Amino acid sequence: MKQNHSVTEFVLLGLTQDPMRQKMVFVIFFIFYVATVVGNLLIIVTIKSSQTLGSPMYFFLFYLSLVDFCFSTSITPRLIVDSLSAKRIIPYNECMTQVFALHFFGCMEVFVLIHMSLDRYVAICKPLRYPTIMRRQVCTILIVLAWVGSFIHAIAQIILALRLLFCGPNLIDHYCCDLQPLLELACTDTYVISLLLVTNSGAICSTGFVTLMISYIVILHSLRNHSAEGRKKALSTCTSHIIVVIISFVPCIFIYTRPPTCPMDSNIMQLISFHFFVLLSSK
After folding, report:
1. CATH superfamily, domain at 91-281
2. Is pLDDT at 209 greater than 90 in this prediction?
3. Mean pLDDT lowest among 70-79, 158-167, 196-205
4. pTM of this prediction?
5. DSSP state, residue 199
6. Residue 12: strand pairing partners
7. Closest CA to 252 of 212, 209, 215
8. What is the pLDDT of residues 30-63, one digit of tens each?
9. Which is it for the CA torsion 252, 254, 260, 266, positive or negative?
10. Smallest Cα–Cα separation from 251: which of 278, 275, 218, 235?
11. Which three-class secondary structure state does DSSP give residue 172?
């Protein structure tokens, strides 16, 4: 990448500077990361190797686990290593790559969750038309659109990041590279870029959350016409989905739709929330 500034590397301050707390960060997030990787890989292998898990719900769950694995791997390993490292230097190109990966896989999770809510809506509200509407070709097209939309979003974010000029200092008050902490280091006017960040990432988080909550409200309202056994089965699936949506979207909205008043707390909340995917999505 061509650089038009004097900064060639950044220093990540991480979650804490206290040695004892750094060890706690290492242990906690190492456990979270291992659980996330193992859980998601088990889901991926199980769905791929089973001939009975071919429904659209498991089709989307496969991609949710795959994307969650990639998202966690793009952030957490460096956080774990940096928690025990005296020097937390990240080169400029690697930092920009992390910005792209963070937004690409994060946006992909949003789209996959929306597709999963669509699948549940059709299955519960239009059961007779479910095989026709949610056939494999349609599901494949939805996933392709999700990849394309996520790529466009990530490209937009990386273009904004590349437009920033850095003259020093190079200390990022964050555990990874993202646009918001980079804006604080830029030596140019960042008002327009900040506005674009809110209208881009903030709009995706807010619109996705509202869309998902409305769809699940409609689903839950339609369950009144189902049998007791049918309601119990549908509620079991929808409840876990709703919890995942709330845990993942609330920190995203909190971070990207308003100026951070306490960025470190929000960063910790966002990072921990994404690691709960493996505990809930497997239901």
Report:
1. Rhodopsin 7-helix transmembrane proteins (1.20.1070.10)
2. no
3. 196-205
4. 0.82
5. I
6. 172
7. 209
8. 998 999 899 999 999 999 898 888 888 889 999 9
9. negative
10. 275
11. strand
